[in-house]
Specification:
- The complex is a heterodimer.
- Chain A is α/β, with parallel strands linked by helices.
- Chain A is built from 21 helices and 14 strands.
- In chain A, strands 3-4-2-1-5 form a 5-stranded mixed sheet. In chain A, strands 7-6-10-8-9 form a 5-stranded mixed sheet.
- In chain A, helix 4 packs antiparallel against helix 5 and helix 6 crosses helix 7.
- The longest helix of chain A is centred in the N-terminal third of the chain and has 18 residues.
- Chain B is built from 7 helices and 5 strands, in the order ααααβααββββα.
- The chains are: A alpha/beta, B alpha+beta.
- At the A-B interface, strand 6, strand 10 and helix 14 of A face helix 2, helix 4 and helix 5 of B.
């Protein structure tokens, strides 16, 4: 491949794109950009056919790779550092710095005697956070941008072999990568002596097998080596001793997809977006109780209010915003007072949450915060790899306590125990999973203490989620007797004449909530039960 | 549990021989073996251990660590009900109850006629279309409990 050939392919493919004239995909889950959005990572998603490398080339694809092969690896690292690009997987480590460390480690060690690759570049596509799907969108919609980013990163750090580690749950992403790789090899954009500049780099796909912890870089390396994914202590960092003991850089899909654009448009362009310490854009997957759920890409530093109300269209069904859950199961729940905080890596950590991979789940007044904490604990306790006792024993105990509280069996002592355990688990666990596992509990206890207290003291769940801890009452002064609830009730326990106040026969009500949803006049309220009905404890 | 290893033995040997040369062959081999046989019973695990020259305990350790691998046979149609955060808050537990009721099995089980198996999974990345259910590779989005029976009837 030469630059002239690449330009020729670009000209031809542009012609084809011009004739097609419109988006490759009709509006699906990735809508055209809404006001306030800036698309860098998602720029090509839905616009081009991800199975045709020519269409990527039409969008300046692989031109950045050609450009950087005329620079020294050190210059590539410096330019990346100058752009301020930080890891999009959650921790926000500067990408250039990571490559610098790997390059340094590589220089201080002899090459492997058996001709094995001296260093590795791994693309982390093990997007395990429930509620985040930007990596899937990029791998499915624009796989070549990730491959080009990988090649640039590999050149900078000195790797000759790369791996893309993708979740097994993403069959389409795997398929599109499997199509993309031979195309890039055929054009000589991967393989030996790329662009005749003496740079060798090839990529292999590794498919995950359903373990959340494998998103942690050292566990991911174990998994590629064919073992159970259990995080290792750091140091040594993967940059020094990673895959098969060689210097390795593990970068997130979104991070790598940013890289070609940084070299096409320049570090200054990238650094011109975002906040002082968090540059560029970030994709967010907004979901939950929000009108326009979906994937968006916005400059760092935007506020949660802008994301949820301006871009997301506000809360569904005119309900009240209660919290935004960011950062996945290791992140936290932020209440309304954080709506105007600019979102960047530091501000979210300061608020007790995480940027994580960018999942943002909106919760409304009908979401119980204790139950949400229990939900996440159920997840992390299941996904704890079993290496460190504080994590695998601790999350189990936290789950038991939270389950007890949501079954009206909690005591005030339980709240103290939760606080004590969360402190210990986060201090004593080895990896981010154990340390972060307590965040949903810590943040909900900090911001929604009253809900916890109502659960243990009054056995009342004011959100109407925890079974047996509330019932529905029809408000006599609001009910206009429209009869919607009576018609909807599956057990026919609502009585009332037309245009007269209705009433629920509490003794026979199964508290299914259909009436509550059916009422258009907010005349049905969630109230404490006169005598809380606790469930029998389960055996075992 | 007994199974017929011979059913796909040539293909299995091919997989083992092809992957063996590369590093970290175990997980790719398990993926492909599960694709062939549908599940990974003890006999199959031992055969793979022998073929790759790794201890049986290592194979067992890996199979039980990763949730994607199963040691029990699955139904013809694998129903994956998502209980990721978005699907959870949008009420997929109600769909789970309904599915479980319609099929007469709990999550993690298969129907006696091996037509369906019901599994709960953690986020399949369809958060904007929550609550979501996958049957095989087909996606059903924004599912309401009343649609469950209809969805099931689409799969023979």
């Amino acid at each position: 491949m030469t630059i002239e050939e690449l330009e020729r392919i670009r000209t031809e493919a542009r012609q084809i794109l011009a004739e097609r004239g419109e988006r490759f995909l009709p509006d699906g889950e990735l809508k055209p950009p809404r006001p306030g959005e800036v698309r860098v990572v998602l720029r090509n998603c839905g616009q081009i056919d991800p199975k045709r490398i020519e269409e990527y080339i039409a969008k300046e694809g692989y031109f950045a790779l050609h450009k950087i092969l005329n620079m020294t690896p050190e210059q590539v690292i410096d330019e990346t550092k100058r752009s301020g690009l930080r890891g999009r997987g959650g921790a926000g480590f500067p990408a250039g710095q990571k490559w610098f460390f790997a390059r340094q480690a590589l220089a201080s060690r002899p090459a492997p005697a058996d001709g094995a690759p001296p260093a590795y570049l791994i693309c982390n596509g093990d997007e395990g956070d429930p509620g985040a799907f930007m990596d899937r969108a990029v791998l499915e919609g624009d796989p070549h941008s990730v491959l080009e980013g990988m090649a640039i990163a590999a050149y900078a750090m000195g790797a000759t072999q790369g791996y893309v580690y993708v979740r097994a749950e993403y069959p389409v992403a795997v398929e599109h990568l499997q199509t993309a790789l031979p195309q890039a090899r055929r054009l000589g954009l991967l393989g030996k002596n790329i662009f005749g500049k003496g740079f060798d780099f090839d990529v292999d796909i590794r498919i995950g097998a359903g373990a959340f912890v494998c998103g942690e870089e050292t566990a991911l390396i174990d998994s590629i080596e064919g073992r159970r994914g259990e995080p290792r202590p750091r140091p040594p960092f993967p940059a020094v001793s990673g895959l098969w003991g060689r210097p390795t850089s593990v970068n997130n899909v979104e991070t790598l997809a940013n890289v070609p654009q940084i070299f096409l448009k320049g570090a200054d362009w990238f650094a011109g977006m975002g906040t002082e310490k968090s540059k560029g854009t970030k994709t967010f997957a907004i979901a939950g109780k929000v009108k326009n759920a979906g994937l968006i890409e916005v400059p760092m530093g935007i506020t949660m209010r802008e994301i949820i109300y301006d871009i997301g269209g506000g809360i569904l069904n005119k309900k009240e915003f209660k919290a935004a859950q960011t950062g996945g199961p290791l992140g936290g729940c932020l209440p309304a007072k954080y709506l105007d905080t600019p979102i960047d890596f530091e501000s979210l950590v300061a608020a007790g949450s995480l940027m994580g991979s960018g999942g943002l789940i909106v919760l409304d007044e009908n979401d119980c915060m204790v139950d949400v904490a229990r939900f996440f604990m159920d997840f992390t306790q299941d996904e704890s790899c079993g290496k460190c006792p504080p994590c695998w024993l601790g999350t189990k105990r936290l789950l038991e306590i939270l389950t007890r509280i949501t079954r009206a069996e909690g005591t005030e002592k339980d709240l103290e125990t939760l606080e004590y355990l969360t402190q210990n688990i986060s201090t004593a666990s080895l990896c981010a999973l154990g340390q972060g596992s307590v965040n949903p509990v810590v943040t909900t206890m900090r911001h929604f203490r009253d809900e916890y207290e109502a659960h243990v003291r009054d056995k009342f769940c004011s959100s109407g989620v925890c079974k047996g801890m509330f019932h529905y009452e029809i408000l006599a002064d609001t009910c206009n007797g429209c009869g919607a609830c009576r018609l909807k009730c599956p057990d026919k326990v609502i009585k009332g004449a037309k245009k007269a106040v209705h009433e629920i026969d509490q003794a026979n009500c199964i508290v299914c909530g259909d009436c509550y949803k059916a009422c258009k006049f907010a005349a049905i309220a969630i109230r404490p039960r006169p005598t809380p009905k606790s469930k029998l404890p389960e055996c075992g | 549990m007994s199974m017929d290893l011979d059913a796909h033995r040539p293909a299995l040997d091919d997989i083992i021989n092809r992957e063996k040369a590369k590093g970290g062959a175990l997980i790719p081999v398990l993926h492909q073996a599960q694709e062939l046989y549908g599940y990974l019973p003890k006999e199959l695990q031992d055969y793979i251990a022998e073929g790759l020259g790794v201890p049986q305990s290592t194979v067992f350790g890996v199979v039980t660590f990763y949730s994607f691998f199963t040691t029990k046979p699955r139904g013809r149609h694998r129903i994956g009900l998502c209980l990721g955060t978005a699907c959870y808050v949008r009420g997929n537990t109600k769909n789970l109850e309904r599915l479980s009721h319609e099929l007469g099995v709990n999550a993690g089980e298969s129907t006696p006629d091996m037509r369906y198996s019901l599994e709960v999974c953690r986020c399949i990345g369809l958060c904007s279309q929550a609550p979501a259910i996958m049957v095989g590779k087909s996606v059903h989005s924004k599912v309401q409990p009343d649609q469950v029976a209809d969805i099931l009837s689409q799969y023979e």
